[in-house]
């Protein structure tokens, strides 16, 4: 993975690599800091395979740590700064780190949770600067492609987060395959609103390096200044999730200034409503809106080639080059095009499993009974068309039957956001006594929303209850937080 940085330094040393609110580094400067961090890790006694947990905001320094750890063969474990003790405790136990880097404010608390050495990033970075000034470098460790580069903790809906094991080989394959389709290039400025602790943010760093582009780290930027920061940074590529896209549209609607010159919006993580796509196209003339679908367990599954973004508007794209998507029925039999079944990914991007979690690994990562190839069972449902494009129907938990009709929360949510004035929507499927419920962010009345929904969906798919809320609760990754919605409903929200 760190070879990708070395290659960028070889031909683009002076180009801007990474910026945050405090400044920018060229590829050469990024490499110098990464080398210094690597040398510092060696002096701390960290060896190949040791885990380094970092729970700090996403800044240039974190990018340098990411590459520096890879150079030493140290496993990089970025955690969301918002992760609380309830999850942090079990995560630290599971990762069993050799070293934990946190903010100065968090150090005391984290020390109570782990026996590992805990250091605060400010004091560490003062040391690193000395290494940098001295031009410190160490021999890179003898890293093998199958060595684990990163553990990405993904939040489970109930249990503690589990870590996807991400080896160098899978990460570099997936990065190159995505870059092949999306095509980041020199001169591109990638405005990244996501933390590196989410794979969506992490791979933006790698894609930017592959494209010799600049990444602007904007996690934590206030919503209100978002559009201004996009404009001032000269962003040409903006990775989005639906909630971020809706926010950008809302800000653009309020402004008279010409829209920033964004050439690509790329979406993943949750389905992007057509209304949001249309609004982005209207507000950012000439932009392309690329639909994608992925899971951390293999990074990305499909990407809609940018040149085809207006075709097959319901599809989420083609499998990454060099990979395959199968649709299987409940008995594991392959289904023909057009039929809905479980989405299964096959290829060099499929990760080896979850860290120290054999049960969950066995459930999601299985082998092809004929070829023996590792396959990722996503737990998501979808279908392929005759030309191999994938259509996403929802997670297993999102699919349900009501009044005898099979449906998914995704289709109801996208019908709701199609209604003029509905900014965001979330649906809870029926469970026990509870019927289908819709939550919407809008100035319109609930009866009106339901009437509009009735005009768009079969009667069985129209919820009996609709709540108008100020803001749909979101997870740290900007997805609808269904657990919080249930709490809202039960009046148990904190
Ligand atoms: N890994 C996914 C992707 O990049 C994002 C996600 O897991 O939500 O497509």
Describe the model.
The protein contains 15 helices and 25 strands. It has 494 residues and is α/β, with parallel strands linked by helices. α10 packs parallel to α11. The chain is globular and about 70 Å long. Residues 199-200, 268-269, 292, 294-296, 299-300 line the site of aspartic acid (ASP).
Poorly predicted parts:
none
What compounds are bound to the protein? aspartic acid
Q: Give the oligomer, counting copies of the same chain as homo and different chains as hetero.
A: single chain
Beta-strand content estimate: 15-25%
Helix-strand layout with pairing:
Blueprint: H1 2-12, E1 16-20, E2 23-26, H2 27-43, E3 51-55, H3 60-71, E4 75-78, H4 85-95, E5 99-102, H5 107-111, E6 117-120, H6 121-133, E7 148-154, E8 162-167, H7 168-182, E9 189-192, H8 199-211, E10 214-217, H9 226-233, E11 237-240, H10 242-254, E12 264-267, H11 274-283, E13 288-293, E14 302-303, E15 318-319, E16 324-328, E17 341-346, H12 358-364, E18 365-367, E19 374-384, E20 390-395, E21 399-402, E22 405-408, H13 409-417, E23 422-428, E24 437-442, H14 446-454, E25 465-468, H15 482-490
Parallel strand pairs: 1-10, 3-4, 3-5, 5-6, 9-10, 11-12, 12-13, 24-25
Antiparallel strand pairs: 1-2, 7-8, 13-14, 14-15, 16-17, 17-19, 18-19, 19-20, 21-22, 23-24
């Amino acid at each position: 993975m760190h070879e990708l940085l070395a290659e960028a330094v070889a031909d683009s040393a002076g180009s801007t690599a990474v910026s945050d609110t405090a400044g920018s580094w060229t590829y050469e400067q990024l490499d110098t800091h990464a080398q210094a961090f690597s040398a510092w890790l060696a002096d701390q006694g960290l060896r190949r395979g040791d885990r380094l947990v970092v729970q700090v905001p996403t800044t240039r320094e974190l990018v340098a740590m990411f590459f520096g750890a890879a150079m030493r063969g140290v496993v990089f474990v970025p955690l969301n700064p918002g992760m609380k003790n309830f999850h942090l405790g079990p995560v630290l136990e599971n990762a069993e780190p050799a070293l934990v880097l946190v903010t100065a404010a968090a150090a005391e608390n984290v020390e109570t949770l782990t026996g590992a050495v805990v250091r605060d990033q400010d004091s560490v970075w003062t040391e690193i600067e000395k290494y940098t000034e001295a031009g410190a470098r160490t021999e890179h460790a003898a890293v093998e492609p199958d060595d684990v580069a990163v553990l990405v903790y993904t939040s489970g809906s109930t249990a503690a987060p589990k870590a996807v094991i991400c080896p160098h080989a899978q990460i570099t394959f997936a990065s190159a395959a995505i870059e092949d389709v999306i095509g980041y290039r020199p001169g591109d400025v990638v405005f990244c609103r996501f933390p590196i602790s989410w794979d969506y943010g992490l791979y933006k760093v790698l894609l930017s390096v592959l494209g010799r582009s600049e990444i602007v780290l904007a996690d934590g930027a206030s919503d209100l200044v978002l559009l201004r920061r996009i404009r001032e940074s000269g962003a040409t590529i903006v990775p989005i999730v639906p909630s971020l896209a809706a926010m950008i549209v809302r800000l653009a609607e309020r402004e008279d200034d010409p829209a920033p010159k964004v050439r690509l919006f790329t979406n993943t993580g949750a389905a992007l409503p057509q209304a949001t796509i249309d609004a982005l196209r209207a507000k950012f003339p000439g932009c392309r809106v690329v639909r994608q679908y992925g899971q951390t367990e293999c990074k990305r599954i499909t990407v809609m080639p940018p040149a085809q973004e207006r075709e097959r508007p319901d599809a989420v794209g083609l499998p990454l080059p060099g990979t395959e998507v199968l649709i299987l029925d409940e008995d594991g039999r392959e289904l023909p095009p057009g039929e809905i079944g479980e989405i299964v990914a096959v290829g060099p991007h499929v990760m080896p499993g979850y860290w120290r979690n054999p049960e969950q690994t066995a459930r999601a990562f299985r082998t092809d009974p004929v070829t023996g190839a590792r396959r990722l069972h996503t737990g998501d449902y979808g279908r392929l068309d005759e030309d191999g494009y994938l259509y996403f129907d929802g997670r297993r938990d999102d699919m349900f039957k009501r009044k005898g009709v099979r449906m998914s929360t995704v289709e109801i949510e996208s019908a709701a956001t199609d209604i003029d004035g509905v900014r965001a929507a979330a649906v809870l499927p029926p469970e026990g006594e509870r019927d289908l419920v819709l939550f919407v962010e809008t100035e319109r009345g609930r009866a009106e929303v339901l009437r509009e929904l009735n005009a768009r969906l079969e009667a069985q798919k129209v919820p009996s209850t609709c709540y108008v809320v100020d803001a749909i609760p979101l997870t740290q990754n900007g997805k609808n937080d269904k657990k919080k919605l249930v709490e809202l409903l039960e009046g148990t929200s904190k």
